[in-house]
Design brief:
- By secondary structure, the protein is mainly beta.
- It contains six helices and 39 strands.
- It has a 22-stranded antiparallel β-barrel.
- A hairpin with an 8-residue loop joins strand 12 and strand 13.
- The radius of gyration is 25 Å and the shape is globular.
- The N terminus is likely disordered.
Length: 681
């Protein structure tokens, strides 16, 4: 498509290289500002844990905006896969949590404007998040169950854009390889006490591989009304319509050698892929009662209509209608403990998930007879508290805990093969203790210990013999020990962390020959994770910003035996031992900029037996652009080259896939460009 638009490409080329009008300079930011990712407003340097902040400049400056990994791959301890298979959603892991998932996100809490994108059962997704309207992201690395409950091996906390002081309209168009087309319209501003922003976007792409085309339409709104100097109410709405997102599937190493772009044969024959509609409503009320006390009240509702075609016949078409709703109340008090400053937080979260799930036989992509029907209910109630006490000018202690009660209830509606109805109940305490020692004004040492838990999701509970629950699958539990160091100057931020995590009943995935492409789950006995994370960011000169991160991950099974073998001492699959990211951004006062992003990923294993090793690779991406101010218009020209050295690598590895179909090849070198126009009114 973008070759067909060569006239526009030539125009952008000429404007980019020969435009000499004045342009506002880009602003480089060192990211150690305050964050509320830990449920209270606090400077990142003072938090006794690992948190990385990514601002709007990094998220939206010349990026293709096909996946969050474009902006988050420099965060240490995080690993992203599956960027180019939109039917399976982005796979995210933090310190190994989430690595087992072959679709969706597990083990990590996703929060958008205070509203969870992670369900009561622990399954999350990012297909309902509009990247083009994100203002900042905070990534919490390490277990956070004491704050967020189930599936909190880490958290990604997203805040969308607010309207600016001067109302504006923005038009954005992007085009690129594999017939990429993305159009976006944004309007925002402030009117008296009302802050508003609305965003519309439409994305289509044919995809690099056969049967990987995708279309997504989104609308999002963020409207905040300042009721008084002490209270406000925030309303958010997000609508996603995804008419199709086809799944090329994993292929074998032999198939990769023959043709990297091919789809798995079964995926073509059964027309594997998905379509969905989702709408999310959120409402948050904040009130500062007085100088010491404040409250926050939230409610939300998510409705999702999901249709999925899997690459096999028996039960290979899934029809899911989901309602997810809930709310929460949080109270914060600032006071004194003896003569020391103290802040106390207490809150309650309630989540309710209602799924109407049906399966039909897949007859070459057409719906056959029904083979499965059940209603699934998950209810989660969590009560938490956190207390921070400054013992003196140097020491601060943070103590927190959360109690969660989670109920699973299945009502079997397909009774011809028996009644598989049932109930399962889990409850769990998740405490944490953090210590912070201030060496200098902007230099902190910290230590923490925390516990986390993770229930199987409704799909991970699935029995291989039919409906209901697999009674052998249990929640995964972990204990995290961490030591860290943070320091900043006017131009640099440096962080280092070392951690050890003991995990009991680690959830692992596997496939069966009769259901290729569908995952089932079992518990390993125990595992151990040791790691080291290092990151630095800042300014080399007034014109050059850098970001550097390094991750070392030594994650192994301690005790794990099943009918296929004994895996004691084996590496946990899906996680590279080494990750290195180096990013540079150059800019000048004429609005020109260029960035180079280099990601080195070490080798990893595709299976529990460690018999299939995936080689290491390095991928480099180049972005460049020019910002122009012309009268009342702000014009942004940008382009980029992904995989500039044309490396052959895999964008996703399907863990423990049947028949050796582990591999999803990534695109070769590819190009995109775009134009953004802003106008104040």
């Amino acid at each position: 498509m973008y070759y067909k638009k060569n006239k526009l490409a030539k125009l952008i080329f000429l404007l980019f290289f020969f435009q000499n009008s004045y342009a506002e300079p880009l602003v480089i930011q060192i990211n150690y500002e305050d964050t509320d990712a830990t449920r209270v407003e606090k400077n990142i340097l003072d938090i006794p844990g690992s948190i990385t902040n990514i601002n709007k400049n990094k998220l939206q400056l010349g990026t293709e905006q096909l996946g969050l990994d474009e902006s988050l791959n420099h965060v240490p301890g995080t690993f992203f896969q599956n960027r180019y298979n939109f039917a399976q959603d982005l796979r995210v892991s933090i310190r190994g949590f989430g690595s087992r998932s072959n679709f969706g996100i597990r083990g990590i809490k996703i929060i958008v404007d205070g509203i969870p994108e992670t369900l009561a059962d622990g399954q999350g997704s990012v297909d309902g998040i509009d990247i083009g309207s994100i203002n900042k992201i905070n990534v919490i690395r390490g277990p956070t169950s004491s704050l967020y409950g189930n599936a909190s091996g880490g958290a990604i906390v997203i805040e969308t854009e607010k309207g600016s002081k001067e109302p504006f309209i923005q038009l954005k168009n992007s085009y690129g390889a594999h017939n990429l087309g993305k159009e976006q319209f944004k309007i925002g501003g402030i009117s008296n006490n009302l802050n508003y922003l609305f965003n519309f976007s439409n994305t289509t792409i044919d995809g690099y591989r056969d049967n990987s085309d995708f279309k997504n339409e989104q609308f999002s709104s963020r409207v905040e009304y300042q009721i008084s100097d002490y209270s406000s109410i925030l309303s958010t709405i997000h609508y996603t319509k995804q008419p199709f997102a086809n799944d090329p599937g994993g292929i074998s190493k032999e198939d990769v050698a023959l043709n990297r772009k091919q789809s798995r044969t079964n995926n073509l024959n059964y027309k594997a892929g998905e379509k969905l509609k989702q709408i999310r409503f959120g409402l948050i009320y904040k009130n500062i009662i007085n100088k010491n006390n404040s409250i926050e009240l939230k409610s939300y509702s998510i409705n999702r209509d999901f249709d999925n075609k899997l690459p096999f016949e028996s039960g290979g078409i899934v029809d899911l209608k989901r309602n997810f709703y809930g709310g929460g109340l949080k109270f914060t008090r600032n006071n004194s403990f003896v003569t020391n400053k103290n802040r106390f937080l207490i809150g309650i979260d309630y989540d309710r998930q209602e799924d109407d799930r049906k399966r039909y036989n897949n007859l070459s992509g057409e719906r056959g007879s029904m083979s499965f029907q059940q209603d699934e209910f998950v209810t989660s109630l969590g009560i938490y508290f956190q207390n921070e006490t400054k013992l003196n000018d140097f020491f601060e202690i943070t103590l927190g805990a959360r109690y969660d009660d989670i109920k699973f209830d299945v009502s079997d509606k397909f009774l011809s093969n028996g009644d598989d109805s049932g109930k399962v109940n889990f409850d769990q305490w998740s405490p944490m203790l953090g210590l912070s020692f201030k060496l200098y004004k902007s230099t902190n040492l910290y230590a923490n210990i925390s516990k986390a838990f993770e229930t199987p999701t409704t799909t991970e509970f699935t029995s291989t013999s039919g409906g209901g629950f697999d009674p052998k699958v249990k929640p995964q539990k972990s204990v995290n020990y961490e030591l860290g160091f943070k320091t900043s100057t006017n131009k640099h931020l440096f962080e280092a962390a070392v951690f050890h995590i003991d995990v009991d009943d680690e959830l692992t995935s596997y496939e069966l020959s009769g259901y290729p492409g569908r995952s089932f789950y079992k518990n390993a006995g125990s595992s151990e994770r040791n790691g080291f994370e290092l990151s630095s960011s800042g300014k080399l000169t007034n014109n050059i910003e850098y970001q550097f991160s390094y991750t070392y991950s030594d994650f192994k099974f301690n005790h794990f035996t099943n009918k296929s073998g004994t895996y004691d001492g084996n590496y946990i699959p899906g996680i590279p031992k080494y990750l290195l990211n180096i990013f540079f951004l150059w800019k000048n006062n004429l609005g020109l900029y260029a960035s180079l992003d280099n990601l080195f990923s070490g080798s990893l294993y595709a299976d529990n037996a460690n018999e299939n090793k995936v080689s290491s690779h390095m991928v480099s991406n180049l972005r460049f652009g020019k910002n122009i101010n012309y009268k009342d218009y702000k014009i942004r020209l940008y382009s980029g080259i992904n995989n500039i050295f044309d490396k052959r690598y895999f964008s996703n590895i399907r863990i423990n896939a049947f028949g050796g179909n582990y591999y999803e090849p990534a695109p070769k070198q590819n190009f995109y460009f775009g134009l953004t126009i802003d106008k104040n009114f």
